[in-house]
Write a structure and sequence with these properties.
alpha/beta; 22-stranded mixed β-sheet; 6 helices; about 20% helix
């Protein structure tokens, strides 16, 4: 530890390099609050009652557990322009996790997030988000978002979501072709499904090709199904493209390829050194940057010239395609509802 720290039984203030973890050594220190100021670089895990971050740059290498709340406040006067707040491990806060409101600095979580109540703005999360209630605005979550209560998404890109109640506001983009709500799911705008584009191509700068693969989902794509695990007493409301995809092999190949890349992203710090070095050198940052750009300039329906993998929007389109195959009009029973 260097001269950066102010430490007593009620508070621990860090604003410089800190070698090792920040852990309580006495029973009284378990109730200690920790404050991270611009320049803080904790080379280990962190345990606190409440954890408060003021400004950037701030880095925490290990996992974080706050018995109370974790707050990343707005810019501090000591913040360095272009600085970032980065949590490299799992972050858990018992009561609440609030981060990114009014921020201009980069805010990144490289692991999973756990808290009763989560509110994130302008953040990138490589892992999953688990909460009772969550509000996400202007966020990119490469994992899923899972809530036992209410989930609110506004201008967010996530892999998928599952919650008891879901409230959506433009724009919402999904990396996987399904999402689940226990309560009825209402869509007042099209949700963009990105499952059929290649993350590999996206990180190589082929964004235009990727935009051509966007599929727009609406309320006709929400279906009611029985909960196969019996965890819920009633039906689930699933946003899915299953009834619209005829070429399953082509769709499955793209989804599986993207799943492997997302799995490698989620492993993050746990990758073998050689694999981690190769993957971290440009590829991952390119994917994060490209997805953030895609969220900032979400594709519009009228600008998409085609749909991929024989995804047919209407019964008339299916009828026409089947008629082209054998020259005869198909029976009504052959057509989708």
């Amino acid at each position: 530890m260097t001269h950066d720290s102010i430490q007593d039984s009620t508070r621990y203030v860090i604003s410089d390099h800190h070698k090792g973890a920040v852990l309580p050594g006495l029973r009284s220190e378990m109730r200690r609050d920790v404050f991270l100021r611009p320049g803080a670089d904790v080379r280990g895990g962190l345990f606190s009652r409440d954890l408060k971050v003021f400004g950037a740059p701030v880095t925490v290498e290990g996992s974080v557990y706050a018995r109370g709340s974790l707050t990343v406040s707005t810019e501090d006067e000591e913040s360095v322009a272009g600085g970032a707040v980065v949590f490299k491990g799992v972050v858990a806060a018992s009561h609440s996790l609030v981060a990114g409101e009014g921020r201009t600095s980069e805010l990144r979580f490289l692991g999973d997030l756990f808290s009763d109540r989560i509110k994130l703005e302008n953040a990138t999360v490589r892992g999953n988000v688990y909460a009772k209630d969550a509000i996400l605005r202007n966020c990119v979550v490469l994992g899923g978002v899972f809530c036992s209560g209410t989930l609110t998404l506004e201008n967010c890109l996530v892999s998928t979501f599952r919650a008891d109640r879901v409230m959506l506001a433009p724009e919402v983009l999904l990396l996987l072709p399904f999402a689940i709500s226990v309560q009825p799911l209402h869509l007042d705008f099209p949700v963009k499904i990105l499952s059929f584009g290649s993350l590999e191509k996206l990180c190589k700068g082929k964004g235009k090709t990727w935009r051509d693969s966007v599929v727009f989902a609406d309320e006709t794509d929400v279906v009611r199904v029985n909960d196969p695990n019996g965890d819920e007493p009633g039906d689930l409301h699933v946003l899915s493209l299953g009834s619209r995809i005829l070429d399953l092999d082509g769709a499955r190949e793209k989804i599986e390829q993207n799943r492997r890349i997302l799995e490698m992203i989620s492993l993050g710090e746990h990758l073998a050194p050689a694999a981690k070095g190769t993957f971290e050198q440009g590829e991952l940052s390119k994917i994060e940057h490209a997805l953030r750009e895609l969220l900032s300039h979400a594709p519009k329906k009228e600008k998409i010239p085609k749909v991929p993998f024989s995804v047919f929007e209407t019964r008339d389109a299916v009828r026409s395609a089947l008629q082209d195959l054998d020259g005869s009009a198909p029976e009504e029973s052959m057509l989708p509802d």
